[in-house]
Structure prediction request, 259 residues.
Amino acid sequence: MTRLLAPTLFMALAALALAASPAFAGPVTLKANPVDADGSVTLGDIFDGAGSAAGVVVASRAGPSVVFEAGQLQAMASRAGLQWANPQGLRRVVVRNAAMAPGAAPAAGAATPAVARQGATVEVLTYARNLAAGDVIQPEDVIWSTVQAHLAQGGSPSDPDMVVGLSARRALRAGAVVGQRDLISPRVIARNDMVEVAYIAGGVTLTVTGRATRDAAVGQPVPILNTTSGRTIDAIASGPGQARAGAAARASAPNQFAR
Prediction:
């Protein structure tokens, strides 16, 4: 009798483990009009058939919508044990505020949503978190969001790679549209740093060490005080603690706003 009970008990425990594991949640279907009601976007807001993974939060919505890259969404679903094949070949998925989604009826006495009054919307890059002046932008710091067209800034970057690695010029708030004027190349030389300056002329390179008189990013001019002679060298920052001087260095200096 003991030998009969052992396999039965093993099978029951295995079935219980399978039922509790999200890895066996199986394939899911993207909802036709994904929305969330409270600002916390979950897999259940996005997919039908999410099962026990429906409550997994994948984003916080600060504006009227959140835009996911399709590959990013597939990876988040996979980590929760869900399989989304993306049969439509979508590039992005938009999750909107339920109160502002097409066909949503406003509550009694509520004002018409601003997005409806303002008209068209556009997808732009926005900041995913609050940033302090000097913070360097990481890939997770910017997300695609849908905003009212009149809030989009002219010349906003069209690709996250254009801003990742740049530095915040000033404090920036989460949800704000990314603007080129917000960002600068990160500082590689700080005022009073000791800097090695390479002077290039006619194929010959001479080096001298001096003190930086101001902050500079790569490609920016930075006057270097030669502490021995007391003379100031007009140089171009080329890296942390390094600069170049001479006509060739100035001609090859990259435009700091080209990115």
Observations:
- The domain at 25-97 is CATH 2.60.480 (eubacterium ventriosum atcc fold).
- The helical segments are 2-20, 43-46, 70-79, 114-118, 247-252.
- The radius of gyration is 27 Å.
- Residues 2-20 form the longest helix (19 residues).
